[in-house]
Structures
1.
Amino acid sequence: NAGVTQTPKFRILKIGQSMTLQCTQDMNHNYMYWYRQDPGMGLKLIYYSVGAGITDKGEVPNGYNVSRSTTEDFPLRLELAAPSQTSVYFCASSYPRQGENQPQHFGDGTRLSIL
Amino acid sequence: GQSLEQPSEVTAVEGAIVQINCTYQTSGFYGLSWYQQHDGGAPTFLSYNALDGLEETGRFSSFLSRSDSYGYLLLQELQMKDSASYFCAVRGDSSYKLIFGSGTRLLVRP
C-alpha cells in the first residue's frame, strides 16, 4: 500500500495564479482532510470530507476549494494564489470507527511558495 | 472556541524521561491524540486516550484526565531520534475532526 500520496512535493506560484494540489489514498478510508502548517505552528484544518460527494469547511477555508468525486481522491484548489497561502499542505485520511480511535494517516506534504 | 496549550520547547538528555503537557478547551470531547513530526516530515500517530488513565505503547505513554481537561505524553529512555515536534490533538465538537495544538519541540541532547 502506498498510503496517502500527495503531488507535487514542491511548487512556486506567482500571485494570482491558480493550482490544484492532488491527494489520493489507497486504504479505502472514508474520511479525508486538508491541513496547512505554517512554520513553527500546528496544523490548521482547511476542508474535510466524510465520503464521496460530501465536503465541509474546516478552520481556515477562505481562498480554497475542494471536491470529492471518488473515495480515493481529494484535490485542493487554490483559485487566486496570495502570499498568505505560502505554507506546507498536508492531506490525511482516516477510517471511521464510532467511539474508537481513528488515527489519521498523512501524506508527505506539498511545500508551496507564493511569490 | 476550541484551543489547546502545550509548551513550545522542551530539552532533555539522552536516556532520561520527559513529559509533555497539554491542556485543552473544547465544546465537546471524543478523545486526545498525540502525533510526532520530524523536521521536514509528515505527522505520524503515536497515541490516543478516550478515557481517563494511562495508555502505554513501548517507550511512550499517554495520560488523560477529562475532569481537568489535561493530558500528557511521557517519553522514556530518550533517544536522539526522539528529537522532533510533538502535537496534541483533540476530537472536540466532532467525532472525526481533529484540532491540533501548536506543538512542542523536543530536543534530545547527548
2.
Amino acid sequence: AQSVTQLGSHVSVSEGALVLLRCNYSSSVPPYLFWYVQYPNQGLQLLLKYTSAATLVKGINGFEAEFKKSETSFHLTKPSAHMSDAAEYFCAVSGGSNYKLTFGKGTLLTVNP
Amino acid sequence: DADVTQTPRNRITKTGKRIMLECSQTKGHDRMYWYRQDPGLGLRLIYYSFDVKDINKGEISDGYSVSRQAQAKFSLSLESAIPNQTALYFCATSDFTDGTDTQYFGPGTRLTVL
C-alpha cells in the first residue's frame, strides 16, 4: 500500500520569499515520486520527478525537491516566489511497476505582492 | 497542439442523462487513465487501460464505464448521471518504457449534473 500526506492545504507566502511545500509518503517498495502543478482552469503539469537517480531533483520554473528516505519526505522548494507560482500543487507516489499513482490532497499556494 | 485532449471542456447535464467524455492522445502511449478531482480530495482513479484489450477498474468505478476504441482514444461514460458525479474529470496517459510510468494529463472536463 502507498499513501501521500501533504501538510498544509493552503500555504501563503510573499513575493520573493521561500516556498516550501511539504510531502510525506509511505510505500512498501522503492518509490517514484512526483510533483504536479495545476494552474486555475488547467490540467496537471509535471513539475519534477524522483526516479532513484539523484536525491535532489530540479524541475521547471525554478522548483526543486529533495528525496529523504530516512524521513520519507519529498518536500518541494523554490528560493524566491513569483506571483505566477500561485497554483495548486500535488505530490504523488507510485511503486515502480505498480500502475497506481496515488495523489495527495493538494496544497494551494497563494503569493502575496 | 496539445498531446492529450479532452472533449467537451465543460458540460452541464441533468440527472438521469447519459454522458460521454472523450479523450484523445498523440503521445503514442499505451496506458490511459480516467480520474476525477473533487475539492480537498485530490485525484481519484476511476478506470485505467494498459492497452486496447485491457480495461481495469480503479478505486471509484461505480456509476462509470469506459471504452478504449483505439490506442489513442479512451472514453468515459456516465450511464445515468447523478448530482454527486459533478466534478472535474481528467484523462492521463503514460509510457512505462521510460521505466517510471510518468503520467501526462489532459486539460480536464468540468461536468455539472443538475
